[in-house]
Amino acid sequence: MKALLSPEPSFSISSLQIKRPTYSDALPSSCLRFPLTDFNGHPRRRKLLPHGGGLKMKAVLDSAMMEQFGLKESDIKNPALSSTYRRSEIPKANPTVLDAQARVCTGPTQTRPLSEEQAFKVFDTILRSARGELKGEAPVSKAQLGAFFAGMTIRANAFPEETQWSEGEKRAMDVFWPLLVRALPPDVLFIADPEGSLLGTSNSVGPSFVGNESKEMRLVGALREVLAGGHLGYEEVKGVLRDVLPLGSEDGGLASGVSESLLSAFLIGQRMNRETDRELKAYCLAFDDELGGAPVADVKSLTHYGEPYDGNTRFFRSTLFVATVRACYGESSLLHGVEWMPPKGGVTEEQMLKFMGAKTSLSVHQAKELIEDEKAGFAYLSLREARPSLYSLVGMREHIKKRPPLATTEKVQQFVRATGKESIVAGFYHEGYEEPLLMLMRRRGVHSGLVVKGEEGALSMTTRVRAATASKGFPVNYCSGFRSLSSETALEADGVSRQSFNLEVDARNYGFEPTETPRTDRSVSKNIELGLAALRGEKGAAYDRIVLNAGIVDHLLGCDGAEDVVVAMERAKEAIDSGKALKKLLNYIEISRKMK
């Protein structure tokens, strides 16, 4: 750790000179074209942008590669925004209630009570929707009703006075509750007043509500504790999740017969109460055996990258390109995520790979093969294939609005194992979740773990100088983690000795000039354009971020050959300037497309 904590200020990334031809010199200039159909044979959506906005990338493919990839000159997909990847079959949520959920379905200090005007509007919307009288906007879904009333109940039962019900909310409830009690179904009435103590004697449903069958009864019993501000044990949470998932339809219907309102109340309620370690472990591990045991890749090192599944909406997302760099010197990576995820619905690795023509419906065994293949050395797995039960919640999560516990635990997964050392790297934003993430990594038994507060809560550390008016909490580029030590004799409970660390990475200490982070603003193609230009060796902000993130991660995880952070940075730069990193990405696209 000494090399990173006390860097040599004389080191300059820009001063390193690799005396060899670059990959871009070896191939003629052309445009990278991507196929118009996905791997289900469906046509890709095409959007015409003003000013003829095509895909203006400086990436290169010669004619032989174009033929090898099965690409045609006419196969061009215009730039698309991440929002276009939202599945159209997911029903729209009611915007009025969704806005209210953003205010009241959050933590004890973050909650913002509704004003009287807001509260009257929300309850009027709920009433008219329940009566079938709502016109001009989407109905309030069952999942929304469960999440909203769970938020109201937990605030009344367990939150500090300043985030409990406002006077305006109380007056609105006094007016609307006698009407709502005749219009809402029993499961929602239970969520709104589980003990019959919040809203007077007009609701006798809550205290006697038990649910309809054994699975729902189990959920109701657990939810009573959650709505009171309490916590559950590991087996209880795990049992509930395995009872009710997967959901049975694209619109969030439950194949188990359990009420959608009850499940959404359970998920957001646990997050509002701030999950315990036992609860987080249950969410993290509940479906580890869903598809059987994880395949084991025969590699010396495997890093599992846990990016936030809901993507980036503002800044360049670098992890896909970092993985190609690290693969050049034997540091294999497994990326995982989804095509689109609320609440942000930002740019994801799956969108980028799909846009470039790679196959994104790989099985875990195919991902293992790509990791082992020296031509690629990394892989991407969609939650859709890796954990169908958890993927089935995507639609419901949009209607819940706020992030449930799974938003934390899905970043700490091991869909493929390795014969060699394993590490997990995960992004975080809200202070207080860095230690739970590291706890889950230790529970996974990996040799090294790292949490990074990158830009947008993602993994990308920046070369931008921290603003004097930066928000409270950990700064961007804050890192915390552990790595295994073979020389220590004191072992932790799992038999592995580890060294812990935390620090703030200042890119200026490693020779990077401060630069503003490139904005992508939900543009999938812009993110690809920046990444490919950097992999061609084009110097600039994106190039610097890829080098910085590869070198720092290698060093902090204790990777072979990265004991000195200066050497780690130089190694990452050489992987780019030699053209090897770009070749890894092109190989990955080609190999994945041929997989059946």
From TrEMBL:
The keyword Transferase applies. Keywords: Glycosyltransferase, Transferase. PANTHER family: ANTHRANILATE PHOSPHORIBOSYLTRANSFERASE (PTHR11922:SF1), GMP SYNTHASE-RELATED (PTHR11922). This is Anthranilate phosphoribosyltransferase.
